[in-house]
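SUBJECT: A protein chain and its fold
Encoding: whole-number codes for local backbone shapes
RECORD BEGINS BELOW THIS LINE
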Amino acid sequence: MNSAPRDNMQWALAQLEVELLRLKAAASNAQDDDASSLQQLRRRFNIFFSRVDTLEHSRFLKELRPNEPVETHFSLLRAFLDRTVPHIDGSDTTLRGRLEGLLKDIEQQETHVRSLALTGVQLFAQASYQSRQQFSRLLIQTALLALTLILALAATLYILSQQFAVSLEKSDEIERSKRRLQSMINASLDGIVVADCFGKIIDFNPVAEKAFGLLKQQAIGQRIENVLIPERYRPQHSAAMERYLKTGNKTVIDRGRIELEALRADGSEFPVELSIASATEENGPIFIAYVRDIEQRRNAEQELLKARDEALAADKAKSNFLAIISHEMRTPLNGVLGVLELLRETPLTDEQDRYLETASASGEILWRHINDVLDLTVVEAGELILQEESFDLRELMSASVAISKPIAKANGNTIVLNLLQETPTYFQGDARRLQQILLNLLGNAAKFTQNGNISLTAEYVAEENCDGLLQISVNDTGCGISFEDQVRIFDQFVTLDPSYRRTACGAGLGLSICKGIIRAMNGTIEVDSTLGKGSRFRVCLPLKRAVPPSEREAIPAQSVELSSLSDGMKLKVLVVEDNEINRFVARQFLEKHDSHVAEAHNGVKGVELAKQQVFDLILMDISMPGMDGIEASRLIRAGSGGSSKSLIVGLTAHVSPEEQQRFLDAGMDKCLSKPLRGRDIKDILAAAQSNGALQHSPEDGSARPRAETDGAVQNDQGEPDEKERIFDLSTLAELLEMLPPETLPARLEAFRCSFDSGHADIEYALKKRAFDEATAHAHELIGLAAIFGATGLRKILLQLEKASEAKNLEEAQKLLVDVKSIAASSHRQLVDLTSAEKSC
């Protein structure tokens, strides 16, 4: 296409020569006198003129004109045309007159036109050659470019093939990973539910199908809350999802495991353990829920809890049974042993004396067994209360050895005490329980050793940054214990020779009790024994060292008579008690010991009097309406009144070890159980007189409830058994001795009126379900019953108080009926007993 204009121009040059020849022929013909020939001449001239003009103004001829020959020929042709135009355009006459000259002029132009055509052909040939060369170069360049493109395409194809291979490999890996992931999901022990940000399920594994009873095809596309969440939880779920999508605040997402209820396809609910994780995709977050059906686990847990509760109940029932039986046996046994002691003081024959010794020995053995059972029940219940006090270790060990010597001597044994010289003498701890341990270990050594040696050794090992260890060892040369038996020697009711021919008596409880006591002291006990050679029991206790008495302020002894302390001075005592009879009895006891007594009928009045006056002693009732004794004691101690440093002794109808600590924390120095006894009054007055520490009771050093020897049979709550005895005669006798005879009728009438009024108050409180009021009124009557020694009435009131505290209306109303009848019976028998006492 690019060569077409050149070919056309070559034709035009050739045609120019043709047109010149035609012009020459027309000029030759015009010499005839024919008018048409002139016109033919003019037409041919115009065509030739047009040809020249076209060639002259063509683009390709312009490219050739810089060539000198071409320019010359064109100039001559242009001159010819310019000379001829006037004649051609003139008249026929003028033209005809110029024909001969024109013909010659045309002939002259033939040379120029032929030269122009030849030159043009030559130049066009050169141009064509150059064009062909250029085209050849272009072809070569195109070929090179094509080759380059082909190579580039080949490289691209290679790269694409490699990429395709890589993509296929990655696709295969992704597919394998997908299959592995799907296998893991399907093999998971937990149900897995995947949902998108709109809560629609997008995956559902087989375990989830089984748990929810819903096929995967049915679950996919469903909203979670519509198929898996119980209806009552759906609003909270929707609100939590909306809040998360808006704020990103997570409620359960990525928060670990939680337990809640889920919904099955059949509409039933079941418990699940749920953990929800979140992940981010291009379309938004997705949520993966791991769901575990814990219905069977819940049922198993319930069964275990039920079994545990039944086991605990059975164990508690066993402990309660042992405690009840032991308590029920102790009091009559105490009476038997007392009668045997009285019988010993009467004239007896030798045979009767032997019978008496046998009965006494049997009674003492039975007494020890009962005490062991009681200790066992306390240790098993975890209610063993240790009494911290300073004690002399040497004195305690010496006393234990002295007590054990008769048993050891009976078997031909000797006991040696070894207290290493560097061992401290004074320690802080429960001396009575420690002596119980020593007596048990020494007793066992004496029973299982014949004609041998027993040693009791103590050593104190100091340790850095903590209390030292007191190590006590009991060694014997007895029969020893086999390795198999050493494992079970501390179990309950274990006797190494259970046969009927055994020579050592015992129920197999001693070592079990010792282990429980030692554990309560944060200590350890271990045994090292060789069968046939002897045994070594080693006790380690973390006891604090105590300050020797010589370095402490002297404390007045309990045995010091009050009269020797008072030296004629009256003690000022404040009695804070809401019950009038209780205040009267306390006043009589105190005035009998020559004390000046002030009374307050409630806690508020007591705090006021303690602030205004200085008292040597304050007897504080615990349970009072309005402000109780605990709060009153706390306010007295916290105030700046004259009695803020006085001794405060709490009075209550029943004291548990846990309550005692609460009373001491409130600022009380001691707590006594009602009813007050003469020896209690004597002890606390002696302590108040000396302004020193209170003298603890010899039994355990704590607030002492009424013991079995106070004259009433005891049950497992430490309360009198009304079936065995309605009154504590020793308490009643002490009350009658203390009260002026003329006041007895009025006090007995006050007793009756107080119980009638109290019964009505409790009945009204129970009707309006005011259990706190009923409890308070019952507690007040308990103290009143204790004052008169009415143990049967006190027991039923304690049961009523507990029923009211537990808000057991039916039980409380039932007990209230019994209270009324027992109170009336108690009043009648009080009248009879006091009348008999007065007649005596």
User: Anything to note?
Assistant: The chain has a mean pLDDT of 76.
